[in-house]
Amino acid sequence: MTRLPIAILGSGKGSNCRAILERIRSGDLAAEARLVVSDVLDAPILDIAREFGVANAYLPPGRFRTRLEPAIEEQLVQMLRNANIELVVLAGFMRVLHEPMLKAFPRRIINIHPSLLPKFPGLEAWKQALVSGETVTGCTAHYVDERIDHGQILAKREVRILPNDTAESLHARIQVVEHELYPAVIAEFCERYGDATEQVEGWPDR
Ligand code: GRF
C-alpha cells in the first residue's frame, strides 16, 4: 500500500504532531510525514520532527502577525510541492492561510480546532466554552478555507465540561481527544486516497 505523503504545519508545542508521528511509527497510520514546517524558530514542534527523524523547516513568516507574507506563502507552496505533499495537516499553525496555499491545495488542507465548530472559532476556544457556561465542548477536524476555523467539517468529538474544570484541565482533556481524532481523520484520507494513482472524485487536483 502506498503511504499518503503529508506535511504538518505548526507554531507551538506540537502534541498533535507527536500523536500523528507516533501512529505512523506504530504502523496504525498509513501516511508518510515528509515535512514539518513552523513559522516559529524555536517551536517545540520542530524538535519533535527531529526526534522522529522527519525533515523540518523554519519558515520566517515576514512582517505580518496573523498571516504569511504572500511571497513567503508562495515559498511554502513550493516547499510542499517539492516534497510531493498530498495532504497538508495544520496542527496549531497560528497563521491564516490565503490564496497561494488554498489554490495550490484545494480540499487538501485540514485543521483541528478545540471546540465543537461552528461554536467558538478563534483563540482559546476551550476558555470561550467555559465562560459561556456550556456543559459540553470538544474538538473538530475540518477543511481549511479563507476564514478562521470555518471550512467544511470532517469530524467532531465531544468532551464534557466538569463543574470544577479550569481552563487548563479542560484544555488538557480536549487535547487527549484531539490526539485520537486527528490521526483517525488522516487515516480516512489515507484509506480513500493513499493508493490513488489518478484523480479521485471529490478531491481536486493539486
Ligand atoms: C490544538 O489544541 C489545536 O486544537 C489548536 O492548536 C492546538 C495545537 O496544540 N488548533 P499542539 O501544538 O498540537 O499541542
Strand and helix map with partners:
Layout: E1 4-9, H1 15-25, E2 31-38, H2 44-51, E3 56-58, H3 70-82, E4 87-90, H4 99-104, E5 109-113, H5 125-131, E6 136-143, E7 153-160, H6 167-193
Parallel strand pairs: 1-2, 1-4, 2-3, 4-5
Antiparallel strand pairs: 5-6, 6-7
Helix pairs in contact: 1-6
The chain binds 5-O-phosphono-beta-D-ribofuranosylamine.
CATH class: Alpha Beta
* Total E-strand runs: 7
Mean pLDDT across the residues is 95
Contiguous low-pLDDT stretches (5 residues minimum) are none
Number of helices: 6
- Give the helix/strand class: alpha/beta
State the domain count: 1
Major β-sheet strand ordering: 3-2-1-4-5-6-7
Share of helical residues: 25-40%
Question: Quick gist of this model?
Answer:
This protein is α/β, with parallel strands linked by helices and 206 residues long.
Task: Describe the protein in words.
It is a single chain. With 206 residues, the protein is of the alpha/beta class. It has one domain: Formyl transferase, N-terminal domain (Rossmann fold, 3-Layer(aba) Sandwich), CATH 3.40.50. The chain is built from 6 helices and 7 strands; from the N terminus they run βαβαβαβαβαββα. A 7-stranded mixed beta sheet has the order 3-2-1-4-5-6-7. The two termini are 21 Å apart. 39% of the residues are buried.
